[in-house]
Amino acid sequence: METITIREALNRALRDELKNDDSVFLFGEDIGKHGGAMQVTANLYNEFGPNRVIDTPLSEYAIIGAGIGAAYIGMRPVVEIMFADFITLIADQLINNAAKACYTTEGETTCPLVIRSTYGCGARSGPHHSQSLEGMYMGIPGIKIAVPSNPMDAYGLLRGAIRDNNPVLFLEPKMMYGVRGEVDDDMPIIPMGKARIARTGTDVTVLAYGTLVPKALKAAEKAEKEGISVEVIDLRCIKPFDEDAILTSVKKTGRVIIAQEACEDGGVAPQLAAFLSDKAIEYLDGPILRVAAPNTPVPFSPTLEDYFVPSEGKVMDAIKALVSK
Amino acid sequence: MEKTEEKRLATPEQMLEMYRWLKLTRDTEAGMVAYHQHTPITELPHSSLGQEAVSVGCCYPLREGDLVHPSLRTRGAFLIRGISSRIMMAGALGKVTGAAHGKSTSHHMGDKASGIVVGTGCVAGNVPVAVGTALGTMLQGKDSVTVVFFGDGACNRGDVHECMNMASVFNLPIIFVIENNRYALTTPASFHSRVKDLASRASAYDIPGVTVDGNDVMAVYEAMIEAIRRARAMEGPTVLECKTYRYRRHSEREPHDLRPEGEVEYEMEHNDPVKRYVAYLLENGFATQEQIDAIDASVKEEVADAFRFAEESPYPEAEKYFWTNVYAED
User: Fold this and answer.
1) Which end of chain B has fewer CB atoms at under 10 Å, N or C?
2) pLDDT digits (tens, 9 = 90+) for B88-114
């Protein structure tokens, strides 16, 4: 057992996959000598050289396209898009090429590509470097989306994403790179689509991912002191999400909250709510509640941004509201 | 497919082979347009009639292992690279014998064996992917060349510029072929760009930009030989602009043709790539009329057979094919 940060875990995952598989290479802006805007690729350039850790011009269309084309012919590229706000720029390539190739070639051409990016608010970075845009891609068949919330998962999910034969959007919570956690000596590789029970409970289920996982866990601890037993499911992969894990928990507790940092509309929470309405409505003892950011841009000033962020307190409020119904 | 040695000049046998591809492309496209008049083809024809010399001159000198990213006017590329006219036609009709059991249109199909990389209906969206296949083969230590086709309209998309720059920066083995047919749907190239030759944009990335008569098979072929040599020797990318002309409207559904009256007829009369190539072959003694006639007859039979095959093929059964391969297996 040792304690490492999410940043170190991601760096290790990349190193281990670079070592493990010659077809893996990293591609992106300032990821080489500089080590990436978030320093996730630090030192990998020195270890693996410029043909495995490749600095690129500032050209998101070309970066994503290069990753897709290389993936089509047997490479396993890991491209970095510096901020998740810029995944807007990769939309055409991701939606019209990466997500379709397997289907339109009946499986002959696959796209084992990982797109790493950093998302989320709290860094006082303003409306264009703080967003959670994963919802944009929830409705695109052919894409997978993973979001880690702790070092063990960061390591295992990133390696799992690289080994997956589909395009995976891998979103790293910007404010959590320094979060430390205990990790096993032999950390497992986690396949896409498997949730984790972060905390067991019997009264309420909180479905969360990324930054909302630690917030939900803290809220659950407080709730316990008030006699409410909360189960927290860390989705880890939001597309495809783990239907079995979600249904098992919700059938047990009968109450469910979906917590996300993204705005309320058009993302994971509405998708899961629709899923629960279809598959679990008869097990529910109350409404499906959402904890999410308001439908506004992420404001810059600290007082405004703090007002925007879905907090532990908002999760707590939702828990209390649900059990009182 | 047959391997072809790269030479400065093609042998008469190669020239005749190129003629066959040219004629097959012409007759396939003409056949589709004619067919569509009485029985609408499921895949709305976006005809490359008039532009056939670009596909032929560019793809004929390629080798096995080279990668081709066609545009929607590069039908000849599929044929030359080894995809049969039967499969192309069945694909256009949405039949189970077409690409991916009818999941993709014939225009955007991919086929690994022939080095045709799966495409996109989003014009110029194939260009970033082509940078990726060129990067990939380079990292893999192969001597493959990537060729990507796109039109004068697509030239104005931002990613084309990003890609030319990136290809230059990494010295990628890629050839950007601009099929300049003078119109982006209805918008004239003279309106949408202020440069005389679109290939001149290559100078912004310090790579060679070559403009050729795209209706002259041999001119395209010879320019391509040099571009391929450069790419294969890892000397870097080339932008090859082929000036050509589209006979049909953008698609067979366009209500208007805004081109000047008489322009299409003039081009068909004076600048037709097939007529010009036949004249070139005959005048220089590279072929006899009998050889041309024999090729024409065999092409006619092949196209008729392709239509027959497509018509007789069934549509895909939804229960069997609909759900498969949305995601790749582990």
Assistant:
1) C
2) 999 999 999 999 999 999 999 999 999
Rounded distance between C-alpha atoms, residue B235 and residue A100, angstroms: 33
How many CA within 13 A on the CB side of residue A254? 8
Say whether both A225 and A168 belong to one domain.
no
Task: Kindly give the residue spans of alpha helices, DSSP state H, lying in chain A.
Answer: 6-20, 44-48, 60-72, 91-92, 101-104, 151-163, 212-225, 243-253, 268-279, 302-308, 312-323
SS3 content of chain A, % helix, strand, coil (to 5): 40, 20, 40
Q: How far apart are CA A135 and CA A273, in angstroms?
A: 14
Q: Decide: pTM greater than 0.90.
A: yes
Note whether A220 and A127 are same-domain residues. no
B158 and A112 in contact by Cβ < 8 A?
Answer: no
Q: Which residues of B touch A103 (CB under 8 A)?
A: 100, 103, 325-326
In this predicted model, what pLDDT tens digit does every residue of B116-163 receive, in sequence order? 999 999 999 999 999 999 999 999 999 999 999 999 999 999 999 999
Assigned CATH for B16-247+260-272+287-316: 3.40.50.970
Strand partners, A289: A257
ipTM of the modeled complex: 0.95
Query: Which of A4, A53, A42, A18 shows the shortest CA–CA distance to A162?
Result: A18
Active site residues of A: 129
Please indicate whether, in this complex, the C-beta atoms of B166 and A66 are within 8 angstroms of each other.
yes
What does the DSSP assignment read for A189-238?
P--TT--EEEE--SSEEEEE-TTHHHHHHHHHHHHHHTT--EEEEE-SEE
Residues of chain B with C-beta less than 8 angstroms from the C-beta of A69: 117, 128-136
Domains of chain A: total = 2
Q: Give the integer Cα–Cα distance in Å for A318 and A320.
A: 5
